[in-house]
Amino acid sequence: QLFCDFGEHFVVHDPTDAEPVCAFVQHISQGNPGIVTCVAGDGRGHLFCDGDTVTFSGVEGMTELNGRQPCPVRVLDDFHLEIGDTSSFSPYRCGGQVKQVHLPQEHSYKSLREALLEPKLQVSPPKELPRSRSLHVAFQALHAFREQHGRLPRPRAPEDVQRVLELAQRLAKQHGPVDETVVRAFASVSAGDLCPMAAFVGGLAAQEALK
Q1: CATH entry, 17-101, from 2.30.42.10, 3.90.226.10, 2.40.30.180, 1.10.1740.110
Q2: Which terminal residue of the chain, N or C, has fewer Cβ atoms less than 10 Å from its own Cβ?
Q3: pLDDT in tens, 58-76
Q4: Helices 158-175 and 129-149 meet at what angle, rounded to 10?
Q5: 146-181 pLDDT per residue, tens
Q6: Separation of alpha carbons 175 and 170, rounded Å
Q7: The Ubiquitin-activating enzyme E1 FCCH domain covers which part of the protein (predicted)?
Q8: Topology of the domain covering 119-210
Q9: What pTM, to 2 d.p., does this model score?
């Protein structure tokens, strides 16, 4: 099992992990709002989306745009973007590039204690939700069993399986009914160790640690 405790104020500096979109400016109107005419490097339409934040560089004439704080855009069509008020800026002459900026985002996450009590299970298709809920409870029952006995349930030992099931049913009062078949199967093989799975979880843990 792996739990990533990101805390209440976790900042994601690059939410998309994608290359920023950019385009070459052909014209910028003076107005409120200002209209930017631009094309991609291959001459096709830009790839911006509504709400993207952008910066300008290399603009001649309307130099007030160069180096400004990122501003949101509204897409009009494949070649035109709507930006803020440019009515007081100098007339556009030529050149320039408009580039997307990925702004940091702050997210809040539950602690382990809170996440165990109120799990947010995301499954597809939805019919798998009862099974996922049962596995969530089964893992907690497994931890409780280990605390009580100092070991994991013995493989396919009926008395150990029954004890895990009883612990799961007690925990189910907080999470809803559990599937006994799922819990029994889980407890029967929980002492096993799959090397490929261990390698995957280890790699995932290393990736999260780098964040």
Answers
A1: 2.40.30.180
A2: N
A3: 999 999 999 899 999 999 9
A4: 120
A5: 999 999 999 989 999 999 999 999 988 877 789 999
A6: 10
A7: 32-101
A8: Rossmann fold (3.40.50)
A9: 0.58
